Amino acid sequence: MTKAKLTEEGEQEEQARDRQEIWDALPKGKVYHVPTNPDDFFTGISYDISPRQAGQRVRKHDMYCELGGPKQRYSSFFFIEVVKGEDKIEDGRVEVIGPEIKEIEGQSLPFGFWIRYYGKELTEDYLDLLTRWTYFALEEGEGWMLLNTRDTIWLRLHKKDAAKHDFEHLGQAMINLCKIQFPLVEKADAKILIATEDLGGSELTKGIIDNVCTPYWERVDKRARAFSDGDADTFYGCTICQTFAPSHVCAVAPDRPPYCGIITWIGAKVMCDLDPYGYIFEMPKGECVDPEGGEYTGINEKIYEKSNRTYKRVVMYSSITYPQTNCGCFEAAIFYIPDVDGLGLVDRRYGGETPLGVTFSKLAGLISGGQQNHGYCGISSRTPRSRKFVRADGGWNRIVWIPKEYKQILTESIPAEMFDKIATEEDCIDAEGLREFLKRVHHPVVTLWKDGETPDPLNLPSPNTDWDQEEEKKAREKGKKVLTILPL
Ligand code: SF4
Question: Is 146 near ligand 1, meaning CB less than 6 Å away?
Fold first, then answer.
């Protein structure tokens, strides 16, 4: 065994010990033992869980209660882990720490769902699959609205369905949905933490995010980033979100994680191996017709077939020319700003206006639904960490604006020489202010402007239509030009 591997395993074991200590030290709640016999897995659950419930939105005035999300400054978590050691888990144990659903009508609270799975053959390679199935209890659960993942999670429960719900049965649905779909899971338990002020509020959830979730996520993400598109002959497609965004297809590649932030290329591979006729399918790459943009004949053919013959092309590393389609569950978005011929980035955490004059929610509403919106692309909040991030558009050299908080989160991914050249809401939001800022900091996009003074915006085609060939060529040349500029 190599030294690196030993170090990695040592780090993994130390993290596992820390997690167990924190798990044991959480405030005590009410303990339930939910059915562990498959015949009774769903006994007592009185809400519908099915694809027809997917993608629901719950408006403020219809809301019974809200967990996480912007009002709580995204201080909640949905954490799923694979535990080593059978004795660590008491199968079917669901502990509800804090009030029950019927006690929080009209309230908005921070929360944490901590779900643990054990199986002799279960490894972290199955994490995406476990996450996907656990989330279905809410994503396809009657009355629930679920947005985002991990530490940006946001839930709302609809008033009309509230009487059907309680946390005991939600815990039961989450772990048993996963068990029934995935026989490698032998044991599962859950802690559902509703972090009222007396329990520690968002201070408690943030502490768990910092000490439990983030180290675990960073480790599994690092492993996923070890692969690159060049290492893979096959990418994977996913159509799970077609339940609410017809025609939407994600092409999942090592360098192109999808919007939901759940599925990775490794996870998609595992899922496809287990269930080759499911929502996830192989996409043999075929011939690479555009290495810079990431366009492949095999991917285009599969996208066409699986999008009900709607989309013929996808340029994997572009948000301007033929980007991937947008479903609606994306955690962040890239948007073209014609006033400066650059790209902005915004995530769900930011509630203010962008330089387009709209908020994230408004933008998300405009570009979701499974359409191919040239110039606009939903992404996972971690997509900018990809080494091929919008490479066809000029990479980081084309990014001109990011909200301050999101920019800080992305610090390690932003090239050092570009960091101060990217504006935040504190520098400017309006187009004129942004133009002045970019000129002042000698941002690479200024080299695309006429005489370095007047932006020369692209003429983007309408959603779902083709580019004019000359304009597409111009767009790609701009991307190439700005990519090669060494920021001053
Ligand atoms: S965003 Fe894409 S990869 Fe994720 S569940 Fe939806 S279709 Fe699948």
Answer: no
Question: Model ipTM?
Answer: 0.99
Alpha carbon distance 214, 20 (integer Å): 15
Closest by CA to 199, choosing from 107, 112, 115, is 112
Q: CB count, 10 Å around CB of 195? A: 26
270/389 same-domain check: yes
Helix or strand (DSSP H, E) at 174? helix 167-181
pLDDT tens per residue, range 49-86: 987 887 788 999 999 999 998 888 889 999 999 999 89
Look at residue 2 and tell me if it is in a domain. Answer: no
At which of 166, 198, 225 does a domain end? 225
Ligand 1 center from residue 440 Cα (angstroms) = 40
129, 132, 241, 302: residue to mutate for ligand 1 pocket, most atoms within 8 A of CB: 241
Same domain? 300 vs 325: yes
Gap between the Cα atoms of 286 and 236, Å rounded: 13
Tokens 């400054």: give the residue: 73
Q: Which of 162, 192, 225 is the last residue of a domain?
A: 225
